[in-house]
Design a protein that fits this description.
four-stranded antiparallel beta sheet, mainly beta, Neuraminidase, single chain
Length: about 270
């Protein structure tokens, strides 16, 4: 049945009249990304309170499912770089070799300058440096790390921890880092000037960020909602999710992927 849903999804995606697609059968899907060849990768946390049942699933263009790795704890945010997947897995960052279907700890707990509590989202710049959010206790102990290609890890923006209390969603765009806080505030950070600007608020339980030109898409895990944000003004797109998690865009920027953690689904929406 799961393969049937995926084949149906792919046929709809290639048709001239697009219909919203829902792919079922995942176990607590949290994050999603598509590579340049059209393959879709989904992190699945698995059962609650069960260790080492987390996995990364690949859906190829033909609708075939492949488990890339299945020995993770609670994989959340993932990002692709140089034919590898980097995924935030509880209190470490794991590097996944897609071709060889192997995983290894890329940044261990003890390497961080301050012990991570709840690593959540992750993004990468064009040099391979990783930015990782730690949502902490989801109240006031959050932090953001940069893992440099040299292996050095730094806590960044410590002076702004009173502003960003529980960072979740991260998105790099040029010299800007966009941060969606669990408390519902959305920030733009100038990485050169080290300056913060609040763009909008009201996204309680904020999770994922996607961007097409000047339009942002923001998800609320707590409220099960997807928003469109233009020039600081938010528009509700969909409020039917149970727990809209870490969203992303297709390679052509025409579709947004929304994992629904509680429903166990991946929804594909046309953003045009």
């Amino acid at each position: 049945m799961r393969l049937l849903w995926i084949l149906l999804s792919l046929s709809l995606l290639s048709s001239s009249v697009f219909a919203d697609v829902v792919i079922q059968g995942f176990k607590m899907p949290e994050s999603v990304a598509q590579d340049k060849d059209g393959n879709i990768y989904v992190s699945e946390i698995g059962e609650r309170d069960v260790d080492k049942d987390g996995k990364i699933t690949m859906i190829d263009k033909s609708g075939n499912l492949t488990t890339i790795v299945d020995d993770l704890y609670d994989p959340k945010g993932l990002v692709l770089f140089d034919n590898k997947i980097y995924v935030a897995d509880r209190d470490v960052v794991v590097e996944v070799d897609i071709e060889n279907k192997t995983s290894a700890v890329y940044a261990g707990t003890m390497q961080f300058p301050r012990s991570p509590v709840f690593l959540n989202d992750i993004d990468v710049d064009d040099k391979g440096n990783l930015y990782v959010s730690d949502s902490g206790d989801f109240k006031s102990t959050g932090q953001i790390f940069i893992i440099k290609t040299s292996g050095e890890i730094e806590t960044i923006f410590e002076d702004e921890r009173n502003l960003i209390k529980a960072p979740n969603g991260l998105l790099l765009d040029g010299d800007s880092l966009y941060v969606l806080d669990w408390a519902g505030e959305f920030f733009e950070v100038d990485l050169n000037k080290k300056s913060f600007k609040k763009i909008a608020e009201g996204f309680n339980g904020g999770d994922g960020i996607a961007k097409v030109k000047d339009t942002f898409f923001l998800s609320s895990w707590l409220e099960g909602k997807l928003y469109k944000l233009i020039a600081g003004k938010a528009e509700l797109i969909n409020d039917k999710f149970e727990a809209a998690a870490d969203i992303s865009l297709s390679q052509d920027n025409k579709k947004v992927y929304i994992p629904d953690m509680k429903a166990g689904t991946l929804t594909i929406l046309d953003v045009n």
